[in-house]
Design brief:
This protein has 17 helices and 36 strands. The strands form nine sheets. It has a ten-stranded mixed beta sheet, with helices on both faces. Strands 23-24-25-26-28-27 form a six-stranded mixed beta sheet. The protein has a five-stranded antiparallel beta sheet with strand order 9-8-10-14-13. The protein folds into five domains: 33 residues, no CATH class; 251 residues, Rossmann fold; 100 residues, no CATH class; 102 residues; 146 residues, no CATH class. By secondary structure, the chain is of the alpha/beta class. Helices cover 25% and strands 29% of the residues. Helix 4 runs parallel beside helix 5.
């Protein structure tokens, strides 16, 4: 940089003027830096890891309980914050593969391919907004890939599924994060049959899988990953006549009287010097060896008919006999174009559901039995279901309640065969459902003191390091300042008052920094302010549920948003911070009637009002009417004994608005009990159990009359 350029740059900075793109080439010359993808809002890796909140995982329920030490994890929450918590578990030795290796052996993610936004304006404005949205999407993916890299075992792998829109940008990001030399494969997966858009352009029928490893040599079980022989390979096999198990003649056509064989080079790839001996006057070519350890073993292969000598007297043209039936059973090694692994499931209850055959190949290839598999965009749970069937441990994360209930139902109704086929059911190993970022405060209050203290410190990202200052016990540190977790269980529910803080200050005021943090349930404080200043020290009240103190965080807390239309199920959403469950208030009527124009009876649920009081930020006004309604999910035949919600139908609020906020269904679908879950946009639920008597007076008689009328 020249002296004149320095002066110009100083002037630009002093006048708070924008720095043009031309300065980037001067300040960071391309020849002095590595190739990288540059875009608006790109953060340093160190800041991403350090700045992401590691939210504690609150166990909600464990399914299929047993005495096993490990329990698979299904996590509802933002995957970035959840993975940051899993990283702490890895470092503490609690997140391991079955062989004790800390971390995750294999990650598969199928992230949303781009944000879905409706930009209005002229073409230039739209193009600019599209670029901004593209930058936000890339950083959204990049943050998660950085956490994934940290979670992987040293020999672990990550597979990322993308379509044509963003694959090139994501590959550049992965080159930066893992290293370009860690790209093992770019795999083409045919996800659709040919379709109509080929009339105006070549039909898009494939997606791409990027396979990167953390180390140079990841786990790769290539012998377990085979596929059917190609058409070209089949044509290489010819009919052959056999006598007494030996090949005595090679003929092109025997009119179906023989089996199909082909002759291959009997040497194999390798550098084993001991297998480069001379046999019957011949020696393997460079980089190839004999398939046996000695000339005697080679002769034995000839006697068994595995090797065939076309001219034994001259010792030439040594070949390996390959029988088509056996070869088809073995298959051929898979290449980087994947066909016949199933299609995207049209009409599935969950959009973009992947076939189990696809995940079966990935998990077999890059992990071993007992290894830990992670899917951070778990969706319908295909990864988790296949991992379960293949004897792997698993962790699934998703920010959508629809996904969580879909996976829960799927894991409790597994079939042994890949593709969830066959009659034989299998029982999944124990798995626990966790909340990460949206907590049940009632359950927290029931925790014993040690568990409460640990959760409170985790929640506010405090360092767990007990210490004393002039006889006052503190539990840890937050941003270098002392933290006290108030024991609300002692002294008959004592309160934190201003007098309490003054007493603490009198003892320690000269020995602390400018801040002290007190964590306690909100009802344990008898003042409303976020902090109280005493002398030069501010005593902050960190309330559970939380009243946000903006000074403590770089970003304002935001909540996960649940979709109101099916198209938004896979949209990019993320949250910062945490919230506490606030069940919405719902009013409805339920009953039955004769379906208009038909002789059949139908049940109906008519929503009258919906009110959400989610505490995403304080203070926040309640949201009345249906503005905060996301969806309604129904289990028509709810089993009160197992108390498991196996949803059968989902109704999004956008569709409900068009239907006049009414749900209808064939009356015969209703069991003795029906569970209805009303979900707000922040993930809070109102659950209602409706008895069959609600839908009809003498429901059975009505059904009998309807059937008789239909027969007439």
């Amino acid at each position: 940089m020249t002296p004149e350029q320095r002066k110009q740059l100083i002037s630009v900075l002093e006048n708070d003027e924008p720095i043009s793109n031309e300065w980037a080439r001067i300040i960071f010359p391309p020849e002095k830096r590595e190739c990288e993808l540059v875009y608006l809002g790109k953060e340093r890796e160190e800041d991403i890891i350090a700045g992401t909140m590691a939210l504690p995982l609150q166990a909600v329920r464990t399914f299929n309980k047993s005495d096993e030490d490990w329990r698979n994890k299904l996590v509802f929450g933002d995957n970035l914050q959840a993975m940051r918590s899993l990283l702490d578990e890895k470092r503490a030795g609690r997140l391991t593969c079955a062989d004790g290796t800390p971390g995750v052996r294999l990650v598969f993610i199928d992230p949303p391919f781009a944000t879905q936004r409706d930009f209005r304006g002229n073409q230039d404005q739209k193009a600019y907004q599209d670029r901004v949205a593209g930058a936000e999407f890339l950083e959204f993916i990049r943050k998660r890939l950085i956490l994934i890299r940290e979670l992987l075992t040293d020999d672990g792998s990550v597979f990322v599924h993308m379509d044509w829109r963003k694959i090139h940008g994501v590959k550049l990001l992965m080159d930066e994060i893992f290293g370009e030399n860690r790209l093992q494969n770019q795999i083409i997966w045919q996800r659709h049959d040919p379709h109509n858009d080929a009339k105006t352009k070549f039909g898009r029928i494939h997606d791409t899988l990027l396979w990167y490893s953390k180390a140079e040599k990841p786990i790769y079980n290539f012998k377990d990953v085979t596929e059917s022989l190609s058409v070209a390979a089949l044509k290489e096999y010819s009919l052959c006549r056999l006598e007494n198990g030996d090949i005595v003649a090679w003929e092109e056509s025997l009119e179906g009287k023989g089996k199909r064989f082909k002759l291959d080079d009997c040497t194999v790839k390798g550098n084993n010097f001991d297998r480069k001996f001379v046999w019957r006057g011949a020696k393997p070519s460079p980089k190839r060896v004999w398939p046996a350890d000695s000339p005697e073993e080679m002769d034995e292969l000839v006697r068994k008919g595995i090797l065939y000598l076309r001219n034994p007297e001259k010792g030439a043209a040594r070949c390996r006999v390959s029988e088509l039936d056996r070869r088809q059973a073995e298959g051929q090694l898979a290449q980087d174009i994947w066909l016949n692994l199933g299609r995207m499931k049209g009409g599935s209850s969950y959009p973009t559901e992947k076939p189990e055959l696809l995940l079966n190949r990935i998990i077999l290839a890059a992990s071993n039995s007992g290894d830990l598999v992670l899917d951070a965009f778990a969706g319908s749970g295909t990864t988790l279901a296949v991992a379960e069937k293949l004897g792997r441990r698993w962790v699934g994360i998703d920010c959508g309640k629809l996904s969580i209930y879909t996976i829960q139902k799927r894991m409790l109704n597994l079939k042994q065969e890949i593709g969830n086929k066959g009659k034989k059911a299998m029982k999944a190993k124990p798995f626990t459902l966790y909340n990460a970022g949206l907590y049940d405060f009632g359950k927290l209050r029931e925790l014993p003191w040690d568990a409460w203290r640990f959760f409170a410190l985790q929640l506010f990202q405090c360092k767990d390091e007990q210490h004393s200052i002039r006889g006052i016990r503190f539990d840890g540190y937050l941003k270098g300042s002392s933290v006290l977790v108030f024991n609300h269980l002692e002294n008959g529910g004592a309160m934190v008052s201003e007098e309490t803080l003054h007493s603490i200050h009198e003892a320690i005021g000269e020995k602390v920094s400018s801040r002290v943090f007190i964590i306690a349930p909100s009802m344990s404080f008898d003042f409303q302010r976020d902090y109280i200043s005493i002398g030069d020290v501010r005593y902050y009240a960190l309330r559970i549920p939380y009243s946000i103190v903006q000074e403590l965080h770089k970003r304002e807390f935001t909540a996960l948003r649940q979709p109101s239309i099916a198209d938004d199920v896979n949209d990019t959403v993320e949250s910062v911070g945490f919230d506490f469950i606030q069940p919405p208030e719902v009013s409805y009527k339920a009953g039955s009637r004769v379906k208009e124009g038909f002789l059949l009876h139908e049940g109906f649920i008519k929503l009258e009002s919906f009110r959400s009081e989610a505490n995403v930020r304080a203070p926040m006004k309640s949201v009345d009417s249906f503005e905060a309604l996301s969806m309604v999910m129904i289990d028509y035949d709810y089993d009160t004994e197992t108390d498991v919600f196996n949803f059968d139908a989902v109704h999004y609020s956008a569709a409900l608005a068009e239907a006049g906020w009414e749900i209808t269904f064939p009356l015969e679908r209703a069991g003795k009990k029906m569970m209805v879950v009303f979900l707000d946009v922040f993930g809070n639920e109102a659950r209602e159990v409706i008895d069959e008597e609600t839908f009809a007076d003498n429901k059975t008689e009505k059904l009998k009359k309807a059937k008789k009328a239909t027969k007439k």
